[in-house]
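User: quick one
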Amino acid sequence: MITKSLMPSLGRAGFIFLAVLAVVGIAVPTSNLFTSTDSFMHVPDYAVTLGGKYLCYALLALSVDLVWGYCGILSLGHGAFFALGGYAMGMYMMRQIGARGVYGNAELPDFMVFLNWKVLPWYWHGFEYFPFAVLMIVLAPGILAFVFGWFAFRSRVTGVYLSIITQAMTYALLLAFFRNDMGFGGNNGLTDFKDILGFSVQAAGTRATLFMLSALALALCFIVARAIVNSKFGKIIIGIRDAESRTRFLGYRVEHYKLFIFVISAIMAGVAGALYVPQVGIINPSEFAPSNSIEAVIWTAFGGRGTLWGAALGAIVINAVKSYLTGALPNAWLFVLGGLAVVVTIYMPKGLAGFFAGWSRLPTKSKLPSSLAEAAE
Amino acid sequence: MTAETLLYLEGVSVSFDGFKALNNLNLDVGTNEMRAIIGPNGAGKTTMMDVITGKTKPDEGRVSFRENALTSMDEVAIAEIGIGRKFQKPTVFESHTVWDNLELAMKAKRSTFASLHWKLTAGQRDTIQNTLERISLVPSSQNFAGNLSHGQKQWLEIGMLLMQEPELLLVDEPVAGMTDAETEKTAALLRDIAKTSAVVVVEHDMDFIRALDVRVTVLHEGSVLAEGRLDAVQNNQRVIDVYLGR
Amino acid sequence: MGVFRYLLAVICLWLSVSTSLAQDVSMLVDGLAIGSFKEREAAITALVSSGSPAVVPVLQALSDGALFVRKSDHKVFIATASGDIFKLADPLNNVDAGQAAKADVEKIKVNNSLREMISNAMSGLTLFSKDVKVRKDAALAVLKSGDASALPALEKAIPAESDPAVADIMRVAAAAATLKSNRSDEAKKAAIDTLSKQTNRDTSSLLTSYAAGVSDPLKSEALAAAQKIETALSTWTAVQNIWFGLSLASVLLLAAIGLAITFGVMGVINMAHGEMVMLGAYTTYVVEQLFQTYFPSAANYALVASIPSAFIVSGLMGIAIERSVIRFLYGRPLETLLATWGVSLILQQAVRSIFGPTNKSVTTPSWMSGSIDFSNGLSFTLNRIAILIFALAIFAGLMLLIRRTSLGLQMRAVTQNRPMANAMGIRSSRVDALTFGLGSGVAGLAGVALSQIDNVSPNLGQSYIIDSFLVVVFGGVGNLWGTLAGALTLGIANKFLEPFAGAVLAKIFILVAVILFIQKKPRGLFALKGRWVDA
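Assistant: Done. Structure below.
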């Protein structure tokens, strides 16, 4: 019943995407936990963790697509929202370590003891409670996006100017989080996590659950994003992407629309980061590096922007290739990624999704790339 | 002038880097009046539109619409009080269907949250259908606007203006690039619109202006050179000088 | 016992004046091992009064705790431990004197007051060294300590000093020592006067602390002098900051100016701009290697040869990128951004594959090393000066090129109205390629300069790309003067913030400030006004 009513807003491709996601989200953890290690059906532990990581990247790409593919906002700073969500989760898990740290200090995380800090900084308070941490996972990226977007969109910073300042934003955060004085572990970031909600982060069960949750988060965000872009709101942000001043002269407050979608997207990126951190076991300032954000944009472009599922697919494919290449041919990876960025933008403006255009809801819009470009000017 | 004044410009000046785009411009347009604005390139026609719609702030002068001072309002607020604008270059949402273009333009609550759970009522469907008929785009209703011909895009944009139900329509070069038949049809459409709202048309095409059969204002170097019926204006010596050169 | 040893020391002192030095000094050295700290003090005074530079290492060793006495014969040695065995050396001439077991020797103890005494005394001794640098250091040491006991030595040393700069320092040191001595108020007044002309923090704090211990009129004189110095100092600090700022600005200008052409004039977002800089730096490295291999005699001028080389290498690479990637993406700035980012990754990895991931160093030619120093602590390094001049020269050259040459004219024509330029017979695609090549070539020139102050590594370009974009956007796109103003503003603002905020925070402040500024004036400092910018 529910699937029936969702169908029109999801589109056929979207429905298939969700179905595959559901199968993977259930099958992979099940196989990992309940089949014997020598069974050919068995998914090894490392693959579960790796897959969970890809799902988080897919959610990040989806969030990028939501603003870029639909609203023409090319954010080169989405990695910052991802990292903030990750730090919020990391802070919770840091507090969970308690007295089990190297220095055995029940109150202060190891790096603070090491820096000779005596009291917990005020902004660390509350992170011992999971619900508070969840709130911060949503609020930290959301508020940053709100404040940044409020300034930027109100003063009509658009196109590459916006891209440049989003990049400057994440760069400034990168520099800031590198500082020990910030109280986020400086260079090393937050790591050595022990458990989450009482479950050991190393345990196979926890990892399988995190995988499942990542799939669930991706699915939910996909459904929400689909609902948004298929509403009148979605049509308006597409209008902003293609002809911003037309939208404005029709009486729409363009900056409010942009701000709304930007904040939603930032929160999704933050959730992705929060799920990512327990699976990889570390969060450090390098997640703020501008190149990370651009990479996420490349995933989106490769998968095909303006489809949401394409972006997610792009993230998973590229990261699978990355995992393979960095092991097999470490020198080749950057050539491949760089080459991909060039080839996709010149020859595949619709990305992977373009290949499936026949049976997706993506219409054949011959004018799409040029109108996108117009909006960016 | 029989009707009361709707749009009123007094002593409006705008300059860009020393270039005076508008120079002490005065203009008034009555309710339900249709006015044609003509003038050579660079006379300030588009800048005048920009000033009225809030895109450009004048350096000095008064611009009002009924009792509203437009100079202190932005584009969105001006659109909300009932001024619609068609751009010189047809600007429609190319990756939306013709229907969606009209739906987006339809007079309704413009807030973000209202747009998230928006449903068309039967009455609103009829309104869109009516407009489609008026702009002769019924068969193209589900086509992407990007795939329309140039003339059709012009009509769609006029249709979008109609959906806004404005009191004043500013129409910039509506027949540029149209065939004669299309031009005639556009003239008829605009005359029809002028029955219910005020229309300001900027155009170069004299035959079109003649077909509109309305009062004409001639702009030159940012101010009004002449105003009156087309025949009178065409016989004005200053207008002839400007158009034909000294 | 104690009295006897003290007497012995005094006798030795007397002897040292009259008889064969080396032997007596060696006796005095052995005297260091005897008795309490008090007596050691006397022994040190005696050693110092010998005036022999040979005692310097002895005192140094004593101060460092490396001076040991052999228990069997009470002879003193400089000992270095290796396990339980000590290697002994004669303290005066450092001649090897065999070994001793740990148990056979005993360290000669010093306390802090002795250490201070030694360090003061040593400066007195080294005032007469043959080495100018040692004399200078000695004078500076006295200046720092203001030790009155060094006064007689200084007064002897000043007339003998051959280097006028060192003599100046000695005079100031003498003035500082005078304040702590028991000389007449007149002499002290003169000393304050001398000191007040020395614009540095040390003299100012010396005067302030002196003022705290005396009464008027000397007190107020000293305070006034200190105040005068502080005022002058803050001026000099500002000058120094401006210089650091200018220096940073020149680097920013170099990095950004090529971008001002490609982004500012052509509107192309070239994320591989930093890699053009990086290629320029690697070209400099390669040229230097070639010179060292084939023309070692001219290696000092390799840097000069690398200027045109880098321009050509980066310029050709720029043209290649424009022809193969960018020309398909005109009018699509966001796509251009992504594609050129891809290019930047490829270039980085290519360079990493060819040259390896480690940093390469480019030597600074002798004519560019060193610095211009001022007595008040101001210092301008020559390579920074050269880079500033180089940056300004490139700026001026580009200005001329754009304003005065036919390529410049065509560039401006194409950017302002492409169809019209085409109609007039300008081959706009050729102009595009050349313009992009020019911007990239200039980036290569920046690489030559940056190779002098930064590590030449595949990541070199990345560290400049964001700054470069901010400079161009801040200054106002499409305006070279704006880029100059942007670089100057950001560079100097950064250096003025650094003392208060530290380098990283200053940088963050600047980033945030620029982000806010762009909100306020999206078109930069020198925005082109008019309705066409909104097109």
